[in-house]
UniProtKB/TrEMBL annotation:
InterPro entries: AAA+_ATPase (IPR003593), AAA_lid_NorR (IPR058031), CheY-like_superfamily (IPR011006), Homeodomain-like_sf (IPR009057), HTH_Fis (IPR002197), P-loop_NTPase (IPR027417), Sig_transdc_resp-reg_receiver (IPR001789), Sigma_54_int (IPR002078). The lineage of its organism: Bacteria, Pseudomonadati, Bacteroidota, Flavobacteriia, Flavobacteriales. Keywords: ATP-binding, DNA-binding, Nucleotide-binding, Phosphoprotein, Transcription, Transcription regulation. GO terms for biological process: phosphorelay signal transduction system; regulation of DNA-templated transcription. PANTHER family: TRANSCRIPTIONAL REGULATORY PROTEIN. SUPFAM superfamilies: CheY-like (SSF52172), Homeodomain-like (SSF46689), P-loop containing nucleoside triphosphate hydrolases (SSF52540). This is Sigma-54-dependent Fis family transcriptional regulator. Residues 145-374 form the Sigma-54 factor interaction domain. Residues 6-120 form the Response regulatory domain. The keyword Plastid does not apply.
Amino acid sequence: MLKKENILLVDDDIDILELLQRHLKSMDYHTYKAVSVKEALYILKDTEIDLLVTDINMPEIDGLELVKYVAEHFPNMPKLVVTGFPSVEDASSVIKHGATDYLTKPFTKAELELAVKKALASKEAKETFKTPPVKPVATNGYSDMIGNSEAFQKVTEIIDRVKDNRATVLVRGESGTGKELVARSIHYSGKFSRAPFIAVNCGAIPENLLEAELFGYTKGAFTGANENRDGFFQAAHKGTIFLDEIGNAPLPVQNRLLRVLQEKEVTKIGSQKPEKLDVRVIAATNSDLEELIQKKTFREDLFYRLSVVTVDVPPLRERSSDIPLLVRKFMHKYGIEYKDRFVRIADGALEVLQRYSWPGNIRELENVVQRAVIMCDGTITLEHLPDQLKYKIDFPQKGFKTLQEKEKEYIQEVLLSTHGNKTKAAEILGINRKTLREKLK
């Protein structure tokens, strides 16, 4: 009777595959065979595998790539490596990526059985984590911003210089880097922190309404204007107005905004009477404003008025040393919100988070941690992270193969279908056994 464990065998040598299968079948294990890493990935995708047994030296993509892939995408799957070309470097590398044993060809059936039992036993053993519980992250006076990296410190240095004055600030950075947090830090860490902070997303308000929402209007100024109404600028008097996605502001709004910055006053739509304002303007953009100026969609004089002080917020990939701090912050936040307790994170999972390039920046990181906290039972592990963060195998571009290479590839497929029976394979191929042996050399 076959045991419940499924073992995946990966080797480009058909004879070795057949030998491994015979040995393991005699031990009552069920096996799957693959002659390449690509074929192994197809099997892993659709089949529950309990143990991977793979060769290291294979054409195109070697077995070490497969070991790395399995270590992150199937973290609970033990991995046994077999090779005919042993080296200290290979051995240390596969052990580092979680291989339970390293067998050198040729090996005996007894050695294989011992290694397989050891590998499967490691799967049953409970994984222990030394990661201590996450403690609240100490605040540093910059609102919700945290970090120790040099790139982060450059931002906080500018915040310290502008927080107590009314200088207009332009915050630039990719989407998700925390531009609004920078604006809030400037406002709430300075002496005007008790005054209003009004945030306006210029890209979220319809173009025909944005002007009225920003500057206010008088009764009868347009259809539907049934009363006098203050705009966001009036609401921010004595405080700060934050204009996010300023690059999306239409030209009429840009014209009015330029006047506000020049004259320190605002005129409601439908009114002839300007009102004096004491307000600090912080604008933010993830667009290239200089490029928009060239396209005549953004006023050059407004750009210079907005960029009295410029803060360039670095993308997360340029401050990867801050990722553990940010992860702790989000684990604490969502651990309390969803679990009513602190959660932990395994070292391997944290390493993956630090390695990833984060095109969506801090916002993407927060979403990933939030989901992981919801899915975990107290400890975030690799299985709680999305696949796109984990190790990927870069297969070479498919080029043309020689006739000999294609012939050998086809012969291997036929041999695999006949379970290594060379006589039967020779019959299917229409050649004799001697010719088949020659072609396999």
